[in-house]
Amino acid sequence: MIGGLIDDMLRAAEDARDTVSEALFEPTLRLGVTGLSRAGKTVFITSLVANMLERGRLTRLSAQRDGRIESVALRPQPDRDVPRFDFEGHMAALSGPQPRWPSSTRSISQLRLSIRYRPGGWLSGLSGPSTLHLDIVDYPGEWLLDLGLMAMGYDAWSAQALAAVETPLRARHAEAWAAQVAARDLAAPFDEGAAQALATAYAGYLHACRRDGLSGLTPGRFLMPGALEGSPALTFCPLPPAPSARRASLRAEFARRYDAYVAQVVKPFFRDHFARIDRQVVLVDLLGALDAGPGAVADLRAAMAQVLACFRPGANDWLSALLGRRLDRVLFAATKADHVHHDQHPRMTAILKALMRESVERSQFRGARVEALALASLRATVEQEIARDGRLLPCVRGRLLDTGREAALFPGDLPTDPQRVLAEAVEGAARDAHWLRGDLSVMAFAPPPSSGRPGDGPPNIRLDQALEFLIGDKLA
Ligand code: GDP
Q1: Considering 81, 177, 245, 256, which has the largest number of Cβ atoms within 10 A of its Cβ?
Q2: What is this structure's pTM?
């Protein structure tokens, strides 16, 4: 299986080389945008594109600040078989008379933004304008976690998944599924009804973990099936060893389905999309995880390391020959920073950076620049100081999503010591041992009404800084 995979990927790499001559004339940068469900991918891309089209707010993007960007336009994307990111539909939702959040990422999609700019520095007088094609690829982070499955057979995956169930946070969600597994004779002949019941119970367990803010959950397509919704390709689950299992047994059939899932779902995604990415943004809902508790942060921590490991497998890993050769920058961005007052942003960034540094170490990720920042793709709040008990409380004001009412909230203080957050996450403190109990309240806000100032894109926090890191040097 692995030999075939390498062949396929070498072929894909050759195909990519064929387009090099085209790239010499008009450089293309493929920017991957990922993150787990609800991390903020759709809003990020929509706001990024809208702000590139109307660049008044991008003062920290150097090419814009220096007045060198001549025009930005949406162009037809080169990959005709990938759905187009529905920028217009999402913008319509956000900018209508009653702004709504757009529908979230369910599958892969793509969009091309062509940027015409004048090079800076000594070249500026010598050459005319250049064009950079920015291909933005949106895909669920759940799929990325699956890439680890390519290096793992069914037995190893089952052992890992069953070990994860032992942790207290997951154990209670796994009860129904574990009871079913215990009640089945795994060596008995395969039966589709039993298979479906087990797979449904396992998917239920994954969804329950997800609702609790847990992240390291495979197979990712069980949570985010994309085009495979309802497909038999997803009818399997991990099982303990059954020494007497025959070829026709339930367990043997699950092992074959697992192999098919890896070969026909995970591998093509990896080969056709992931391996071609030049730069990557990983969006994380850090505030959501902090709000959910140490268990959720522990899981986010594991997921971040796992994501980085996908980009740069260890030096002796068979994937390393092909993976991550192109990728030279990764940005971890904590989204929804407008949920807290800006005086909390340094703490938010410090916690994210601590998680990131640790992920880099744990995954032995090398050779690409990694950065972390806190941003809001679409700023839904304004700041306000409110006097209470003789003290000025730094609040955020916005329209609450559930009631539609305007409210000013004091969201609370984030922990000051990132190392403490990491330590408690590492200890895997149970959800009840809460470091933030009563300290942080993350409310959902409705999107803001359109600003209406000509030349300005949607309001945001640090989107320009993110862009400077991701594409600034390409517009130099
Ligand atoms: P996806 O699943 O990663 O595509 O997530 P979305 O982009 O659809 O975002 C999920 C939800 O998070 C949205 O519906 C919003 O409620 C919220 N959200 C995302 N970005 C922001 C932001 O910048 N500010 C605020 N206040 N909420 C956001």
Answers
A1: 177
A2: 0.89
> Are 212 and 295 in contact, with CB atoms under 8 Å apart?
yes
Cα 291 from Cα 198, distance rounded (Å): 32
For 335, list phi and psi in degrees, rounded to 5. -90, 175
**Residue 18 — very low, low, confident or very high, per pLDDT cuts 50/70/90?**
very low
When computed from its CA atoms, the radius of gyration of the chain, rounded to whole angstroms, is 23
Beta carbons within 8 Å of 414's beta carbon, 6+ residues apart: 290, 340, 344, 347, 348, 351, 436, 440
Ligand 1 center to 272 CA (angstroms):
27
Q: How far is CA 29 from the centre of its chain?
A: 19
Cα of 388 from ligand 1 centre, angstroms: 31
The crossing angle, in degrees rounded to 10, of helices 41-53 and 463-471 is: 80
Residue 72: what residue type? Answer: V
Of all protein residues, the one whose alpha carbon is nearest to atom 2 of ligand 1 is 38
Question: Using CA atoms, how far apart are residues 138 and 25, in angstroms rounded to an integer?
Answer: 26
Write the pLDDT tens digit of every residue in 71-121. 999 999 888 889 999 999 999 999 988 899 999 999 999 999 999 999 987
Q: What is the pLDDT of residue 24?
A: 56
DSSP annotation of 233: G
Indicate the helix (H) or strand (E) that contains 109.
strand 109-117
Residue 10 carries which side chain, given as an amino acid letter? Answer: L
Report the amino acid identity of residue 371: E
Q: Residues in the chain, how many?
A: 476
34: which 2 tokens? 């990922």
Q: Is 445 in the pocket of ligand 1 (CB under 6 A)?
A: yes
For residues 307 and 293, give the distance between their C-alpha atoms in angstroms, rounded to a whole number: 21
- Point out the ligand 1 atom lying closest to the alpha carbon of residue 378: 23
SS3 282: strand
Write out the two tokens for 388. 């209470």
Sorted by where each begins, the domain ranges of the chain are: 17-139+277-378+451-475, 145-269
Name the closest-CA residue to atom 17, ligand 1. 40
* Token code pair at residue 321: 């020959």
43 lines ligand 1 (CB under 6 A): yes
Max intra-chain CA distance, the chain? 76
Indicate which atom in ligand 1 lies nearest the CA of residue 375. Answer: 23
C-alpha 182, offset from chain centre: 34
Closest CA to 207 of 196, 222, 195: 222
Q: What is the CATH number of domain 17-139+277-378+451-475?
A: 3.40.50
